[in-house]
Amino acid sequence: MAIEILENTLLKLLVRRGTDSDRRQITLESGELGFTTDTERLYIGNSTTPGGIVAGNRYKGRAADLTSLAPVVTGDYAYETDTHSLRVCIAGTGAVETDWLTVANQISAGDGTIAIDSKNLITVGMLSAGDIDWNALGSSLELDGSNKVALSGTINIDNITQRTTSATNYLSLPSKLKINAINYDFPPTGPQNATYLGSNADGLLSWSVPTIVESTVAPTTASLIPVATIVPFASAAAEVPYGWLSCDGSEYISTAYPDLSAAIGTAYNTGGETTTDYFRVPSLNNKVVYGSANPANSTLMGVTTAAMATSPVLSATGMHYMIKSIGGTTNPTLTIQKNLSAFVNTVDKTGTSFNPLSGNIIIERPPPGLVSFNDGLDTHTFTMPDGIHYVKFYITGAGAKGGISPGGAAATVIGHLSAAPGTIFKLKCAQGQTQADSPVEWADYSAIYTPDGATELARANGGYAELVNHWQSGSRENDWQRVTYTANGTILTSNDYVLNGHILRGGSGLGDTNSSGNEESLGAASYWGSSPAPGAGQGGHDSSPFGAVPGNGIVVFEWS
Q1: pLDDT, position 215
Q2: What's the average model confidence in pLDDT over 141-148?
Q3: Which one-letter DSSP state was computed for residue 410?
Q4: CB 554 within 8 A of CB 373
Q5: Strands 320-324, 333-337: parallel, antiparallel or unpaired by DSSP?
Q6: Residues 6+ apart with CB under 8 A from 488
Q7: Tens of pLDDT along 530-541?
Q8: Nearest to 349 by CA among 218, 210, 194
Q9: Do 142 and 155 meet the contact criterion of CB atoms below 8 Å apart?
Q10: Strand ranges for 92-131 from DSSP E
Q11: Cα distance between residue 535 and residue 522, in whole Å
């Protein structure tokens, strides 16, 4: 039977169809097509493979977990959104993770370690220390306990160069340094004028004022001219230079001039010496010397003037003779320790080198000095005088007003300051309480500060004024006592400017003045005495101030 297909005949081809489960139960003929109605896949038979061979693979879409797309066939592919990867099914139905193989990944910067531009070019981004290998750090870097890059305990470097070379920028170093296995703890403050960096008893570095020793050098000719040499000297006996003595027959103790004593012995002694330890120098006043093999035993001869026939008339002139007394020292040193001054023939030679070939060296102390402040101002300064390195200070606060009790006395602090001449200290002088003052119980304080004003070196607090009732309970009911307050002070002996000091606490003004009889009571006396002396408390009478109004505190500096 033949089928005639005309030009306008419409043919409709239908392939074998059924479910995917049905497909798996049959073997399609070679070239036979089969369509699964449930999975919508096309298969071609080869006469041997059950169910045939899939005619083409499909893109199964995207999902965070591709196992959710099962069932799929081998060769199907899909995009996994959580890993940004393209995967293909290599076995099974894709129902388990091992059925899928990743074939491509979308490149991502992840945590910022790398950076990817629009052209997918990779550059290094921000690295964390945890991503750095130990071997990449070198010999001077390490990872600390929190995986952060840090300097290692041992830094190997040949040179440290300041990054900024501006005159206002400095290389910053820590205050604690170890150099050549020695610990150095540098002070937190900068140096003052004429101070040096030294170590205290605790091994800490600090700025200190040196003990000033001024030296003058007096060169001599002792090494060139032998001891006991006698020479004429065209000046008075008072101008004989160091290392020489006048030939005037004076006696000297042998221990003072051992070299000269050994050279001439007692040859020129007259028998009237103080003791046998004394010797005399030759007496050459009004004498002319002549050659002698034994000068000590030479004969004193008279000399007459005469005129020679063919020569000018002979004459004689007076000349002062001196004898060399000291040998072996070419540069004797005259040491003058502060606070002293040196003058040669009224010329100030303190702190200078000079040649005392003649004249007297006079050493004297500078005159003592005293400066005080008691005007109640806090704007004063004190300057260390010229040539002075140590001063004694007294500071006293203001005394308190009288009232219910007599006014208490201020504390007094006494000590010594050490600083180079010209150092300027800032001061505060306590202002005294007046009757117009509001009832302030503690009077004003006096203080001394460092030159920069940042540190309080010493403070003397003011006295206590009991203007209101202050009572405290005793051991029994209704047993009450008035509270006693006494002024105190402070002194910063750890500071290099403060050598030492002592605090004198102010006396208490305890005493009731408002009981029967309206008794009077004097205020507490200060270091300087009773009111109106600085720091003294005012008296009280019948609960009111009595006597002199408390004066200002005082700050005193003295030196010698």
Answers
A1: 45
A2: 80
A3: P
A4: yes
A5: unpaired
A6: 411, 461, 503, 505, 506
A7: 888 999 998 887
A8: 218
A9: no
A10: 100-105, 114-116, 122-124
A11: 14
pTM for the whole thing? 0.44
390 DSSP assignment: E
Report the alpha-carbon distance of residue 486 to residue 461 in Å, rounded: 9
318 contact partners, CB below 8 Å, separation of at least 6: 286
Q: What are the start-end ranges of the E strands in 240-316?
A: 244-246, 251-253, 278-280
- Joined together, the tokens standing for residue 227 give 């001891």
Extents of the domains making up the chain:
16-56, 60-130, 366-560
Two tokens, residue 243: 């290392």
Under CATH, what is the fold of the domain 16-56?
Seminal Fluid Protein  PDC-109 (Domain B) (2.10.10)
What tokens does 161 get? 């160069």
Beta-strand (E) ranges in 384-495?
390-396, 412-418, 424-428, 446-449, 456-460, 471-473, 480-482, 489-491
Give the integer Cα–Cα distance in Å for 42 and 20.
Answer: 10
Q: Contact 376/432 with Cβ under 8 angstroms? A: yes
Contact 385, 369 (CB under 8 A): yes
Side chain identity at residue 540, one-letter code: G
Taking alpha carbons only, the member of 125, 152, 124 closest to residue 139 is 152
Q: What is the pLDDT of residues 64-106, one digit of tens each?
A: 998 998 888 888 989 998 888 899 998 988 899 999 999 888 7
d(CA 559, CA 545): 38
Identity of the residue numbered 377: L
> What SS3 state is found at 207?
strand
Instruction: Report d(CA 398, CA 411) in Å as an integer.
Output: 9
Say which residues have a Cβ less than 8 Å from residue 159's Cβ, sequence separation at least 6. none
d(CA 326, CA 354): 19
Give the residue ranges of DSSP H helices in 110-229. none
Distance CA 285, CA 169 (A): 74
Per-residue pLDDT band for 330 (boundaries 50, 70, 90) equals very low
CA distance 208 to 402: 45
Q: Report the alpha-carbon distance of residue 20 to residue 18 in Å, rounded.
A: 7
